[in-house]
Sequence to fold (246 residues):
Amino acid sequence: MTAAPKGNLSFPPAALQWTATGRTVVFVLAASSIWCLLSEMYGLCNMRTFTIFILIPATIALYAMAWLDRTRGDRRLFRAVMIGTAAGLAAAIAYDIFRLPFVFSDAWGMGRFGIAQMPLFKVFPRFGALILGQPLEQPSYSLITHLVGWAYHFSNGATFGVMFAALIGEASRRFGGGWMWAVLMAMGIEACLLLSPYAAFFNIHLNARFVIVTLLAHGIFGIGLGLCFAWHSRWWRVMPALAIAR
Fold:
């Protein structure tokens, strides 16, 4: 069987390119990261099993799909996935930087500014423990448990960026208002977490201060995601199909 030539834009099929169907596939594959946690909290599947049999294969499929589009398609899907990943990671870093004064308030003497210490990073080693099949609560967590938990946290950030890309489509057409949609998405994520068993599952005490800080942090995530997404989209133009066909 003869392989399709590199310039043949009918391969990969439309369902694996930046079409409505392709964007849906990208969204579903990216959403496997947050569903890994949700499935644990709702008792559908433990995180270790979900990670091994769903999250890792879905992640491989997502980036394989992007690479296929880069080498055989029109590169729009590849561009969107890469921009979404970069923007999501940048937003996650901004999100964590915003929370640092609250996490290290006592050590940094931030109390004099009215910033109370809060266990905002408490869940990360517990993510790692669940993925590694360890007890949720431990006297202390190993380095590998912390690293796996943080890796999962940044996986969520990256895939939220990809999900945003799948929802918004061509970001270059929405440069002016893209960040507002990103903030709306971030607020929606936070609302869903607050309504979920998240706080009870991880034994987090919900109070007004916690809700306000996490809402502000997700607002920072949304602004960072939208602005970074728009910035990348302005300079990373899609190569015209005619140029690829040559």
